[in-house]
Amino acid sequence: MLSSSFVIQMPLSMQMTDEQFFDFCQVNRDLRIECNQFGEISIMPPTGSETGYRGGNIFGQLWVWSEKDGTGICFDSSTGFTLFTGAKRSPDASWMKLERWNALSAEQKQRFAPICPDFVVELRSLGDNLQPLKDKMGEYMQELGVQLGWLIDRKHRQVYIYHPGQPEEILENPETVSGESVLPGFVLNMSKVW
């Protein structure tokens, strides 16, 4: 099992601008790098093959639905977004309405877009600690535009459902998970995620 992420704390005088952070991530492409709202940088190793397969199934099902639906676009786990708090996050899968995406400039789309997707998914690897992922989901739920989030815990076969301003819900070993009114008609088949 690969080790989990580690956090680097930077003095305020050494924190990177958005452009510097983007460049830092580009020269370290083999790592998954995020930054929270306090400027702490998390460096995560690439996922293990099993987690990559499971995450690919989540993204694949979302992509197929998105292509048929046509009202938005989906993003894979390599996509970074800059949240209004200054955090830079990369959900394992996400989806955004076309009108929100189209409102961004071409330059904003080329970097870590300054927007949070309407829908975000995080997949817990077997070696991940749960609380940092819950904290990340809480961070997403504070963002304008986000409507729904899922934290999928393969280890305990649970799905945490998040809506802004509401307590999390927990589904125990569901066969499917619905995208509700946010992603009408999208139902994630969990058989290839567990």
What would your notes on this structure say?
The protein is built from 5 helices and 13 strands. 27% of the residues lie in helices and 26% in strands. The strands form 4 sheets. The protein has a 6-stranded mixed β-sheet with strand order 4-7-8-9-10-11, sandwiched between helices. A 3-stranded antiparallel β-sheet has the order 1-3-2, with no helix packed on it. A two-stranded antiparallel ribbon has the order 5-6. It starts with 5 loop residues before the first strand and ends in a 5-residue tail after the last strand.
Strand order of the largest sheet: 4-7-8-9-10-11
Q: Roughly how many Å apart are the termini?
A: 17 Å
Query: How much of the sequence is in beta strands?
Result: 25-35%
Q: What portion of residues is helical?
A: 25-40%
Unreliably modeled segments: none
How many strands? 13
- Structural class of the helices, strands and pairings? alpha+beta
The H/E string reads EHEEHEEEEHHEHEEEEE
Rg: 16 Å
Which of globular, elongated, flat, extended, rod-shaped describes the shape? globular
Please report the number of helical segments.
5
**Which whole number gives the mean pLDDT?**
93
Largest sheet: 6 strands, mixed
